[in-house]
Write a structure and sequence with these properties.
The chain is of the alpha/beta class. The protein has nine helices and ten strands.
Length: 304
């Protein structure tokens, strides 16, 4: 009689500098949008869990904020979160960019933390579609001399290169264990968190470099209602907080055009994710120096 394949499960943290594509990798692997993506540093602020259910395993990814030099209390919290998470996982996925010429300061810092933790680590070289094979080979040699990685995988989220290999390699390094989440779940974020992250992502993408990362979104009212035809929809009211009055004007735009665009793009994404029609109202308020206000930083703290 053929022996039944044992079920495996485990937690995997993804570490990397800001803007190396960690969230894009997670979203591609999960097949759902669970992490905000914008072509800006520090898009991910909180620790986000994303769940991949395979025939004989469950992988719980923990997307962490990008490693950067903190310039505020928020920045300190973000970097502390990223390293704290990696102490208690089964596997670490360390993401670097294929365009790197050498091991920079940020990557060296991450390597030191990985060495301290002594965790099974997979090195993922992202954006290989942007360079030739010789450059990737040179990077592989550089990093092989630094740490005994369980595997090194060149990938591209844009070209969908080797993403399934990441899952296969993680599977090999997991132990037998239970499913921690239902098989139809793909994130432990609440609906409120998904709403806030989606609005913030659209703002970051549309505002380009005009407004720095001093924005914070709070969904203040969320009510599920029914139409006359008995169809469910969400009434959502959210506030975008910014650091300065000048930023407020940019976020709102001429005759409210920018705020309307942010709201439209966020609503379209949320309707796809939640499978419901959404009535979204957005407001903009100034809250100076919130990035150093302990009261506002509570939602960003990592909790096990």
């Amino acid at each position: 009689m053929e022996e039944k394949t044992k079920f495996k499960s485990g937690f995997v943290s993804i570490l990397g500098r800001t803007n190396v594509g960690k969230s894009s990798i997670i979203n591609s692997l999960v097949g759902e949008k669970v992490a905000a993506i914008a072509n800006r540093p520090q898009t991910t602020r909180t620790v986000i869990r994303a769940i991949v259910n395979r025939p004989n395993s469950q992988i719980i990814f923990i997307d962490t904020p990008g490693i950067h030099k903190p310039k505020s209390k928020l920045g300190n919290v973000m970097v502390e979160n990223a390293f704290e998470v990696s102490k208690d996982v089964d596997v670490v996925v360390f993401v670097i960019e294929a365009t790197s010429e050498e091991i920079g300061k940020g990557d060296k810092l991450i390597l030191e933390k990985i060495k301290e933790a002594k965790k099974k680590t997979i090195l993922v070289i992202n954006k290989v579609d942007l360079v030739d094979k010789a450059k990737v080979a040179k990077l592989i040699d550089l990093y092989k001399n630094e740490y005994d990685f369980v595997s090194i995988i060149p990938v591209s989220t844009v070209k969908n290169i080797n993403l399934d290999v990441i899952l296969d390699e993680i599977d090999k390094n997991l132990k037998e264990g239970p499913a921690y989440y239902n098989i139809d779940e793909y994130t432990d974020q609440t609906t409120r968190q998904l709403v806030e992250e989606t609005i913030r992502e659209k703002a970051l993408k549309l505002l380009n470099d005009e407004v720095p990362h001093g924005i914070f979104v709070e969904a203040e009212k969320m009510k599920k209602r029914k139409t006359m035809e008995n169809e469910h929809f969400y009434n959502i009211e959210a506030t975008i907080y910014c650091l300065r009055e000048s930023h407020k004007g940019i976020i709102i735009g001429k005759n409210g055009s920018m705020l309307k665009k942010i709201g439209t793009y966020a609503r379209e994404d949320l309707e796809r994710m939640l499978g419901l029609k959404i009535n979204l109202k957005l407001w903009v308020k100034v809250r100076e120096d919130w990035v150093n206000d302990s009261k506002f930083l509570k939602p960003f703290q990592f909790s096990k």
